[in-house]
């Protein structure tokens, strides 16, 4: 991944710390999602063997969803601000590829920091369309936390849609 450092000179050295925090966090979310997806596929195969139609919940599926949501409830809160937490944690889906799979692939990021209390990381990736995610990261009592996440399209660079972290 190429990171373009657009921070004020005073904050250019913060790129590795802040981007490292963010990308490690997103990779942990990917890991939970990928593991859950693989387990879901096994449950679907078992359901098919039992002759249960796709639209009917099969053995273990409700438990898998509950476990997935619990893992996210444990993983996400320590990495986000209280303000962001009040919006809800999301966790309404998992799939293949994982939501932030592009972190391990071909993507670029812009690191923008103008004050000591706030940074913005914008990731650019291709997933059927040229997409962007914008992460607002704040320093809360000496700890970097995600404060907001937005998503958008490269062909509409000034239009962002607020979303959850997962």
Short description:
This protein is 33% helix and 28% strand. It is an alpha+beta fold.
What does this structure look like?
- By secondary structure, the chain is of the alpha+beta class.
- The protein has three helices and six strands; from the N terminus they run βαααβββββ.
- A six-stranded mixed beta sheet has the order 1-2-3-4-5-6.
- α1 (15-49) packs antiparallel against α2.
- The protein is elongated.
- The two termini are 21 Å apart.
- The relative contact order is 0.18.
- The model has no long low-confidence stretch (mean pLDDT 95).
Which features would summarize this protein structure in a list?
alpha+beta; 3 helices; 33% helix; 28% strand
Biggest sheet architecture: 6 strands, mixed
Radius of gyration over all CA atoms, rounded: 18 Å
Percent helix, as a range, is 25-40%
H/E element order: EHHHEEEEE
What's the arrangement of strands in the largest beta sheet? 1-2-3-4-5-6
List the total number of helices. 3
- Poorly predicted spans: none
User: What is the averaged pLDDT score?
Assistant: 95
Strand content: 25-35%
Structural class from helices and strands? alpha+beta
Distance between the termini: 21 Å
The total beta strand count reads 6
Shape: elongated
What topology emerges from the helices and strands here?
Layout: E1 2-5, H1 15-49, H2 61-75, H3 82-86, E2 108-115, E3 118-126, E4 130-140, E5 143-153, E6 161-163
Parallel strand pairs: 1-2
Antiparallel strand pairs: 2-3, 3-4, 4-5, 5-6
Helix pairs in contact: 1-2
């Amino acid at each position: 991944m190429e990171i373009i450092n657009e921070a004020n000179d005073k904050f250019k050295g913060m790129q590795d710390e802040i981007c490292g925090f963010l990308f490690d966090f997103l990779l942990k979310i990917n890991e939970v999602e990928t593991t859950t997806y693989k387990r879901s596929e096994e449950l679907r195969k078992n359901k098919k063997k039992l002759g249960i139609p796709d639209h009917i919940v099969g053995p273990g599926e409700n438990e898998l969803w509950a476990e997935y949501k619990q893992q996210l409830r444990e993983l996400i809160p320590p990495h986000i601000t209280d303000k962001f937490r009040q919006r809800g944690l999301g966790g309404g889906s998992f799939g293949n590829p994982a939501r932030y799979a592009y972190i391990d692939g071909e993507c670029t990021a812009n690191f923008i920091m103008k004050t000591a209390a706030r940074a913005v990381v914008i990731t650019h990736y291709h997933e059927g369309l040229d997409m962007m995610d914008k992460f607002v990261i704040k320093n809360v009592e000496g700890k970097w936390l995600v404060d907001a996440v937005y998503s958008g399209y490269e062909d509409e660079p000034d239009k962002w849609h607020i979303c959850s972290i997962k």
